[in-house]
Amino acid sequence: MNRLKYKELFNKIDRKQFENEYLICLGLKTTKNGTTKANNTMNNKWKKIKESFSCSNELIRECPDQIEGILTASYEKLADLFKIMQNENHEDGLKENFEKIFQYDNFKRKIYLFFNKYLDTLDLCRCPYCDTSFSGYYITNDKSEERSIYDLDHFFPKSDYPLFALSLYNFIPSCQYCNERIKNSKFIDLYKLDLSKPDEVEKKLLESSPASDEYNFETNVHIRFIPQKNNSVDKNEQWHYAPLSQKTESKYKVYFDSQTNSQYQTIIRGMKLEERYNSQAIKMNGLYLIDLRKRYPHSHIEKLCKLLNSQKTSDPNSIIPTSEEQIENDIFHNDNKYALLQKMKNDLLE
After folding, report:
1. pLDDT of 241 higher than 50
2. Are 114 and 21 a contacting pair, CB within 8 Å?
3. Less Cβ around it within 10 Å: N or C end of the chain?
4. What is d(CA 158, CA 78) in angstroms, rounded to the nearest whole number?
5. Given its phi and psi angles, is residue 36 left (phi above 0), alpha (psi -120 to 50 degrees) or beta?
6. Domain extents for the chain?
7. What is the pLDDT of residues 117-166, one digit of tens each?
8. Residue 132 to residues 127, 173, 252: CA-CA distances in angstroms?
9. DSSP letters spanning 65-117
């Protein structure tokens, strides 16, 4: 649901600096921009692959000459290489060679430490796939270790595409449920990519991963609560407000309106978002918000603002809200980026 805010990050720091930090974290570069023994070892193996397969394999010809080029390749570059892979034959042992070089388990701990540093900056407080679980880490009591409370999902599965197993922009910090139970190695097959239509394939790939700047689930999908009649759903029926105590969650259905955008419909189906959001706890959260909006419509907030302003003091330490925006934030927690279900809340309160 949430795009990783790489574009915003690179407005603050140099992209090359960010990518060098990743390589330093992996132990492949020094802080003085020098190479390490591990880097040289990997590059020597990579050079042998390039020499052995460049003549017969388009994928290898399109890959960067240095190992760093694969590890820090943009998501767009990964998508281009992925398209080539769909037409390549790996029976020649190329996949096995990739598995020997790009060994995720050897670097897993270091990659988590790198993402821990940037979770807040990239707005990764919640799982970007489902928005129902927190991301973060904690420090053990003896302060000896950081332990993450999220998984690192490989958007292009490392089991099928080991070439991308260590690629920075292939990682999506996600909840364990999305990574292990929902998004398996067959997830990419849901997109039904027609390689005879390269423009369509490119569009689908660029709109599919939260690591892509083209990913725009936020504005292309709206979460709706709609009443159910005789076990059927009337999407055009208007919401009839009633006190929360008079509603039961079973009378309503959560509906993800993707406005006929097939790409986002695929994501919704693949991540089982509608099924998961129709669980009792999530539906009751949504119904509570709807009821809260009924009790605090914009007209009431405007009156409340005037009343509070009439009580305003000259005390510089006063915490009385003095604007409608502040009051809205206090009631609905609109400015709390650490709260779960933010997408649903924003859609219900709009």
Report:
1. no
2. yes
3. C
4. 13
5. beta
6. 6-206, 220-349
7. 999 889 899 999 999 999 999 999 988 889 999 999 999 999 999 999 99
8. 7, 13, 19
9. SSHHHHHT--HHHHHHHHHHHTT---TTTHHHHHHHH--HHHHHHHHHHHHHH
